[in-house]
Each structure stands twice: as C-alpha cells, then as structure tokens.
Amino acid sequence: MPENSERPEELLRRADELTPKERMAIPRQPMPERPAEERRRDQSEVPLGFDELHAVIEACRCLECKSKPCVQGCPVGVDIPAFIRLIRQGDFEGAIAKIRECNCLPAVTGRVCPQEEQCQLHCTLAKARKDPEQAVSIGRLERFVADWERGRERPTPETKPSPTGKRVAIVGSGPAGLSAAGDLVRMGHEVTVFEAFHKFGGVLVYGIPEFRLPKEIVDDEVGRLVELGVRFEANVVVGQTVTIDELLEEEGFDAVFLGTGAGLPLFLGVPGEELIGVYSANEYLTRANLMRAYEFPKVDTPIVRAGRVAVVGGGNVAMDAARTALRLGAQEVTLVYRRSRTEMPARAEEIHHAEEEGVQFLLLANPVAILGDETGRVRALRCVRMELGEPDASGRRRPVAVPGSEFDLPAELVIVAIGNGPNPLATSTTPDLKTDSRGRIVVDPATGKTSKRGVFAGGDVVLGAATVILAMGEGRKAARAIDRFLATGEW
Ligand SMILES: Cc1cc2nc3c(=O)[nH]c(=O)nc-3n(C[C@H](O)[C@H](O)[C@H](O)COP(=O)(O)OP(=O)(O)OC[C@H]3O[C@@H](n4cnc5c(N)ncnc54)[C@H](O)[C@@H]3O)c2cc1C
C-alpha cells in the first residue's frame, strides 16, 4: 500500500500523472511467500509472485530516469525502464516483448538473477531513499510479466527467416546453449543442440531445485525453441558419443558452439573425503532434482538420507543443497562457511529463505577433516575456527585459521559446495582447443572464438562457475559472431 492515505485503485487511476515525489513515497510492494513451516518439507515454489495490482503499483515506483543506470547493471542490457513503464500502463504483452528483445529466459532470470548486485544495485530510487532494500523490484516485475505470458495461449509462432543452408551444433543445453540456439535459429541457420543428460536446461534442471525454479518453466522455454525449429538430441556426450572434429568433418556442421558449463566439482582435499556419506553438491542435487530422489518412495533414487547434515560453502549451490537436505528429511542442517555472512556469495533472498527454513549457519569455520565410524560412514566434520585478515585478490577479507581451535560437528552426511570447474571431456578430446590452467576454454572475449576454426564457446566453460544471465549473454554474443563467420567465412 502507498505510504500516503490514497487507495491503490485511486493511485492506479492517476498512474500516468504521478509526480516523482509521489512515486518515491510508494513503498516497495511485498511479494507473498509460503510460510517456512509449510514449505520446508516440500518442493513447491517458495515465493508466489506479484498479482496484477501489486505489480502495477510496484511499476509506479520507477522514476524512469533518463540515464537508466539499471540497464548498465544488466549483463544482457534489457531496457528496464521501458518494460516497467509498459507494466504500469497495463500493457503486459508489450512489456514481455520488450524483455524478450534481449532475454530469452525471463521467467528463469526473474527468479534466479542476483538482482541486488546487478540492475537493482544501480536503482536511482534506492540511492535517493538511501536504502538498497527500497530499489524497484525489477526481478519480481520481470517474473510477474513472464508468468503472465506463460498463463496465456502461445502467440502465433514468429515468421521463420529464410534458411541460410548453414548448420550449427550447440553442445550443452544450459542457458548459454539455449540462448545461442534461439538467436541462431532466428537468423535462419539449422541448429541442433546436443545434451549429455536426458533432460534439457543444464543447471536450470539438474542443479537449481524445483522449489526455486519449477522445471516446467525450463521445459516451456525449450518448447518455444522447438517451435522455432531447433532440434534437440539428448544423451549425446560430445567427446565420447561423437567428437567435435567429427561434428565438423563428418556430420556436416559448419560451426560448433560449446556451452558445456562447469559441472566438475571441486573437493576440500581433506582426510576422510572418501567416506560413505560425502557428496559433492553437484551429485547430491542431481540425484535429488534430475533423478527425483525427493519423490521417495514413489521413486527410489539411491541417496544418503541423514538426520544431521553439514554443507560446506556459502554460495547459491550451498543454500540449494542445505534446503534440499531439509526437504529430504534432515532434522539438523548446518552450513559451514569460512568467512562471515557479509562475504557470502549467495543471493540475499536464498540466505534469508534458508535461515527461515531452519538451516543453521556456522560462520568463520573451515573443515580440516571428515571423521568416520568403524563401518566407513561419516560421523562428524572436524572444523577449525577462522578469523578475517587482509582482503585477498577477490576483494574479500582472507580467512585465517585460529591455531588450536579445532572442534567436531556431528553429521552423518557432508555435502561439499565449494565450487566447480569445467568438465574436461569435450576439450580433452580436441587437442587444438586451447584451455587455461583451470581447464576453462580460452576465447576471444568479444566473439567467443576459440583457438580452433569454426568452434566458439561461452558460459561457465569459459567464465568458470558464474551466473545464468552471464551465460546467456555469452551465448548471444557468440551467436552474432557465428552468424558473421557463416556469412563471410572469415576467422
Ligand atoms: C545448484 C546451483 C545453483 C545456482 N544458482 C544460481 C542462481 O540462483 N542464480 C544464477 O544466476 N546462477 C546460479 N547458478 C549458476 C548458473 O546456473 C550457471 O552459471 C549457468 O547455468 C551456466 O550456464 P551454462 O549454459 O554455461 O552451463 P550449464 O547450465 O552448466 O549447462 C551445461 C550443459 O552442458 C552439458 N554438457 C556438459 N558436457 C557435455 C558434453 N561433453 N556433451 C554434451 N553435453 C554436455 C551439461 O550436461 C549441461 O546440461 C547456480 C548453479 C548451481 C550449480
């Protein structure tokens, strides 16, 4: 509700005439969420999204400033004030079309983008009100209008461009691959996406849990691409089923885009990591999401179910693993992070939701060993207390161990979520593809061109584990370069 006494309906009648002062006086609109007690044991989505009234009132808060600092904070350059204005005017169809000019996964990014560090960080309203919490809820508005679109019949498919006769292979169906595929098919190229798993969407389906990103949203986006003419082939492991050289030389593809992500988990390197009951977050979440362990006993996916769970890490992956453990029946879930809360890289909303659901945070603590019982099963995580020293290369204060401060955290399941590197399969079978010391594919940052003619790459396989929106931006950038290469043959 507005801070002044005006009723929302009256305010909306005057939406076009509101002065900047009146817009600034409207408080941020709350988005309803399911209560923690109700949701902590099921997979249904936590935030419920704006209704029309709250979305339009929230849109009224945008000051439509000329310099548009929020757009500079968006890695794909969505014209944010323009789509928000269209929402304010009730033109939801126009608003979603405006977003789709730059972003092909709005229902996804509206849910998972770290908006508080991107577009919303630059919001003039937040600066004017000297409170970052008062930024216009750009992500929630994006989600609202994307969900509005999903609830309606699909518009008539876009008119198809004339075929160029060129064929492009996309390896990996995560956000980088899907964005590249969408742009390339609209340019008239024949596009085939090869995916190692049996489902399409990359981390959006096997990593991020259902309660944060319902899988039907990703299926819907894949369905749109199929309607546009993109072919999808599941269970094809490039580097094993077929090599990149074979795609180019034998299968008749004119270019290849590698969007194979960063699916190789990093481990702690401490004694006891081989014990029964130690998982990488990747494996744990894949078993839970893709193999539907959460549907037990209907689906009997092998996964360790424990009363006490320790999750190591402080990013989105750690939050997802901790909240999934609760939903798989854990009584106590402790997140062990070596820095303080301020340095946690997870989205603010995920940290808040995890805490609300009962995940305990053990901050400034670092594992030094995993302890087992006589049957080889985990019984505890041995940690050492940390304190923060000088800032390191990342700008965050470096954690330093406090000598003699070891203690044991009882746990029957330990989930390691400390980061991922690129999967080496596709690159190791292509010797002329240059990678760096961390296994990331080396590309020209302006085009995504690799060291091998005709092969482009983008997303986490180039950036290291990053974000959905950055991966999408990379896919789109490479699509433009591939189009140029196919038209000119110039490398
Ligand atoms: C649990 C989790 C939570 C996250 N939460 C967020 C969040 O809230 N917000 C956010 O912005 N980002 C989040 N991220 C990061 C984000 O999901 C990634 O940055 C993004 O998905 C990277 O996209 P991509 O297309 O490069 O790779 P991916 O999404 O990893 O997709 C790569 C695809 O390539 C396939 N593949 C790999 N090798 C081969 C091969 N040889 N042959 C065929 N296919 C292959 C893989 O199976 C996969 O489907 C999260 C990541 C994880 C793991």
Task: Please outline the helices and strands.
Blueprint: H1 8-13, H2 20-25, H3 36-39, H4 52-60, H5 69-72, H6 80-88, H7 92-100, H8 106-112, H9 124-128, H10 138-150, E1 167-171, H11 175-186, E2 190-194, H12 203-206, H13 215-228, E3 231-233, H14 244-249, E4 255-258, E5 264-265, E6 278-280, H15 281-289, E7 308-312, H16 316-327, E8 332-337, H17 348-357, E9 360-363, E10 365-372, E11 378-391, E12 397-401, E13 407-410, E14 413-416, E15 420-421, H18 425-428, E16 455-457, H19 460-463, H20 468-488
Parallel strand pairs: 1-2, 1-4, 2-3, 4-16, 6-14, 7-8, 7-14, 8-9
Antiparallel strand pairs: 5-15, 10-11, 11-12, 11-13
Bound molecules: flavin-adenine dinucleotide (FAD).
Summarize the structure.
The protein is α/β, with parallel strands linked by helices and 491 residues long. The chain is 34% helix and 16% strand. The site of flavin-adenine dinucleotide (FAD) has 42 residues, from α11, α16, α18, α19 and α20.
Can you put this structure into words, describing what you see?
With 491 residues, the chain is of the alpha/beta class. It has three domains: 8-150, Fumarate Reductase Iron-sulfur Protein, Chain B, domain 2 (Orthogonal Bundle), CATH 1.10.1060.10; 167-263 and 421-488, FAD/NAD(P)-binding domain, CATH 3.50.50; 267-418, FAD/NAD(P)-binding domain, CATH 3.50.50.60. Helix content is 34%, strand content 16%. It has 20 helices and 16 strands. It has helices at 8-13, 20-25, 36-39, 52-60, 69-72, 80-88, 92-100, 106-112, 124-128, 138-150, 175-186, 203-206, 215-228, 244-249, 281-289, 316-327, 348-357, 425-428, 460-463, 468-488; strands at residues 167-171, 190-194, 231-233, 255-258, 264-265, 278-280, 308-312, 332-337, 360-363, 365-372, 378-391, 397-401, 407-410, 413-416, 420-421, 455-457. A five-stranded parallel sheet has the order 3-2-1-4-16. Strands 6-14-7-8-9 form a five-stranded parallel sheet. Helix 7 crosses helix 10 (138-150), helix 8 (106-112) runs antiparallel to helix 10 and helix 16 runs parallel beside helix 17 (348-357). The relative contact order is 0.12. The structure holds flavin-adenine dinucleotide. Flavin-adenine dinucleotide binds at residues 112-113, 171-177, 194-197, 202-203, 207-208, 236-239, 259-261, 263, 285, 316-317, 320, 347, 423, 425-426, 459-461, 465-469, 471.
